[in-house]
Hints:
By secondary structure, this protein is of the alpha+beta class. 30% of the residues lie in helices and 14% in strands.
Amino acid sequence: MTRTPLDGALWLVRHGFPVFPCDHPSTPRCTGLHKTCDGSRGKHPAVAFTRAWTLDERRTHETFARGLRNPAVAVGACSGPGGSRLLVVDSDRPGAIDDVAAAHGQRWPATMRVLTAKGHHDYLWAPPALKLGNGLGALHGQFDGDVRAGNAYVVGPGARHASGALYELADPEQPPVPAPAWLLDALVTKPSFPSRRTRWRDAAPAGGDERARGLVAFILDSRQGDRNNRLFWAACRAAEDVRAGREDPRDALLGAAVRAGLDAREAAATIRSAYNRMGATA
């Protein structure tokens, strides 16, 4: 149904999603508007997407018949039921947002999903009065991915990734559903970041690697409300050490997180997220 850029673009406009063309990785050189390509082929807008999108089928045919271009969705131009606005959750690995939902004691809803090269894009409707952007809010450090809302765009079904992977609809019959309340609450909540205090080193437990002991003490020094963010920060530093060939302290980090009051499953997911983000194996 959406095996080619034109097929994907037509499917999108027929379902009310504003479309515009992006660079395609198979063209000899990048066709994006930018002056210098950063090497991420297939994702650069070929037009000023905030005003050059279309919902017209004839124009879509003309645009995507001129040459290879990936279809993309102008997120901020999309309007849903009751004036709701489009929110796209971009998971960098399969099930990333599902894991976050489970960590919050929730079940991720079935919604429109586009399978990507690394994970998937989940399309949702958000209340029109809620001013969302690309920030993760309280999900910072918990989620392997990003969100797209407002003045943003996402590559759509029918697009080809630089790796050769095709963006495809998981279920063409599944429309976007309203974004769950817990997700919206998290996105509008200001994130908290680890404090750069140094006194935690004095509380490091004896024995073992000094840096690992410091990370454990840093987690144990957490207060309610910043425990998960501090765990993520510590796990990122541990992942850096693992990549440098040092001993892996993840078990010690998990034990410290549980002692600090975090749920073991949630803490394990946070550590895994940090290791994935830093390119280490967890």
